[in-house]
Amino acid sequence: MTAIAATSARARPRTATSLRQWVGLLYVLPAVAFVTVFFVIPLGMTAWMSLNNWPLMGEHAFVGLDNYVAILRDTRFWNALKFTFYYTVIVTIAIFAVAFPLAIFIEKPRPLTNLYRTAFFMPAVVGFASASLLWSWLLNVDSGLFSPAAYDLGLTEKKVNLLATFQPAFWSIIAMVVWKVAGFTMIILMTGLQSIPQDLQEAAVIDGAGPFARFRAITLPLMRRTLALALILSVAGSILAFDQFYIILRGGPRNQTLTAVYWIFNQSFVSFKLGYGAALSMVLLAILVALSLIQLWLLRKPEGLD
Amino acid sequence: MAEAMSQNRKTAFSLARHSTGIIASVLFLAPIVWTVLSTFKPAQEARQPPLPPWPTTGFSVENYETLNAFGDGLWASAQNSIYVSVMTVLLSVLVSVLAGYGFSRFRFPFRDFFFVLILSTIMIPFQSILTPIFLVLTRLGLHNTLTGLVCVYVTLQLPFSIFMMRNAFDAVPREIEEAARMDGANNIAMLVKVMLPLVWPGVVTIALFAFLGAWNEFLAALVLMTDQSKFTLPVMMTALQSGRFGAIDWGAVQAGVTVMMVPCLILFLALQRFYIRGLMAGAVK
Q1: What is the distance between the alpha carbons of residues B283 and A98, in angstroms, rounded to a whole number?
Q2: Which of B34, B77, B127 is most worth mutating to test chain A (most A CB atoms within 10 A of its CB)?
Q3: pLDDT at A304
């Protein structure tokens, strides 16, 4: 189709038409300028800076791959990366465990469904920074909600500081992120559920398939692209996590919750090792690009359909 | 008999559904409601655990007043946030409407290359290019300015909003344009008078996403705004919460959180239709 359209366009008298078409370049120029200045050039600079020793003040010096060699020995970066992956896996499972039932709950139009959907979604429009500040208060040992409430109810002997040790601090963050993100994932999954033809489900009911058999044989396979999308969005978002760990935990307790982005932030903007920070950024960037390629593969259209 | 049974089952199902719905709704809304209510406690009471969340010793806006006394004050950072968000909305809408129209209606050299270039920036996390962005802004004289931050936010919005706008323009039949051209309308006049009303829902969607994105963004604002007078609300409130201005006043922090949350919630409730549209468009692509 497109080939035919292209030929017929070319067959028309060239000069006047194609000159008019060039105007299009003017329309997209501002966008291209923004992306070039604030994205493409910085991207190239990251690659170049990663090959340099680049302090905030003073001259930078080309050091080849030294920064990358240093990364190999940087155990704290690898620990941060390990923690980031651990967090990503746990939080993604937790988000899906909450969002999938909610998506099924609000999928069909029934009385009050819209109201419930809106309520579940509200935390998703609040920013991560606001949500983190809010929860840092709820989790505070003296002025917060959870510890004093547990103490008042007699569940704990004394007020427990949830943010002082790794396990409770980590699971508090998971709870906060699930609260904030589940509604978003729910909407994505709902669009997938709604795209499954109703007659397919009905035919399966007539054939005597139970709810679990239907879920496995119809719902899951037909939702493959939606599931993949929700999964990738959650994974990519979690690998880049920063706000909640910075605001609620400051990377603590004992630097155990430093994420990859947090470590890059520390190296670049606290220690001002800009070249080294750029090399770390290149590693993170490679991970995310690999993830995007997996995404494109998972989201490919089923063969024969376009 | 059988009918009564099924009627009973229906009632039971409906009851179970609504109790689940109400419990889940309460869980999702409670932290927001808890915070907003407790900001109206007097400062003395706000230091105590929020049990119950509502003020018990009298209604007060003391927390908001305290907040306004920190550093340059709440109002100063709120103004910064409003400026950055509104400018991001205006600029990203302008740039994406033009680009969406250009990509949809013209065939020019490198068209597909430029389109893919803009969309592919979504694959690369901006967190990894913040240092060079800092250096580029310095070179442009935009270092530590709100305008510089706006430029970064606009760039981050472009892949989504240009994709949205191109699809919106693609959905407008070409006959409408040709009729307008017959009447002697030039390109810009046609875009503004004929096309814009037709793609208006798309414009509202991208404006909403641009506002929420800029209003809530934290890391870039934290890194790029080094002068306290330029802090946006999230950066200002984090500085306050970290005890940079002395002992942490949780009442004031919650007042700040409320100021940060309420515009998002109101905009979402008013424009929910457009928000879900945007999500769907993202999900289908």
Answers
A1: 19
A2: B127
A3: 46
- Measured over the CA atoms of residue B227, residue B228, residue B229 and residue B233, the dihedral's sign is positive
Q: Which residue has the tokens 């922090």?
A: B253
pLDDT digits (tens, 9 = 90+) for B162-192: 999 999 999 999 888 888 878 777 778 888 8
- Report chain B residues whose CB lies below 8 A from the CB of A289: 123-124
Instruction: Name which of A17, A34, A172, A264 to mutate to probe chain B: the one with the most chain B Cβ atoms within 10 A of its Cβ.
Output: A34
Share of chain A above pLDDT 70, in %: 92
Mean pLDDT of B66-87: 89
Would you call B119 an interface residue with chain A, using a CB distance cutoff of 8 Å?
Answer: no
Token pair belonging to A205: 């009911």
Structure tokens at A94: 């937790």
Residue B101 identity (one-letter amino acid):
Y
* Domain-embedded: residue A305: no
Ordered structural domains, chain B, with CATH: 2-63 (no CATH), 73-284 (1.10.3720.10)
- Residues A9-36 pLDDT 10s: 444 445 666 777 888 999 999 999 999 9
Residue A304 counted as domain residue: no
Q: Nearest Cβ partner of A191 from B105, B133, B280?
A: B280
User: Residue B105 is encoded by which pair of tokens?
Assistant: 């209606």
pLDDT, tens only, A170-191: 999 999 999 999 999 999 999 8
Read off the amino acid at residue A281.
S
This model of the complex carries an ipTM of 0.91
| Cα(A162)–Cα(A141) distance, integer angstroms | 7
Residue A43: inside a domain:
no
Q: Do residues B124 and A44 make contact, with C-beta atoms less than 8 angstroms apart? A: no
Specify the number of domains making up chain A.
1
Closest CA to A128 of B82, B213, B80, B267: B213
What DSSP assignment string belongs to B80-113?
HHHHHHHHHHHHHHHHHHHHHHHHHH---TTHHH
CATH of the domain at A263: 1.10.3720.10
* Token pair recorded at residue A226: 């939606």
- Asked if the structure places residue A27 within a domain, the reply is no
Cα separation, A71 vs A61, whole angstroms: 18
Mean pLDDT of chain B: 90
- Residues of A with CB below 8 A from B218's CB? 127-129, 242-243, 247
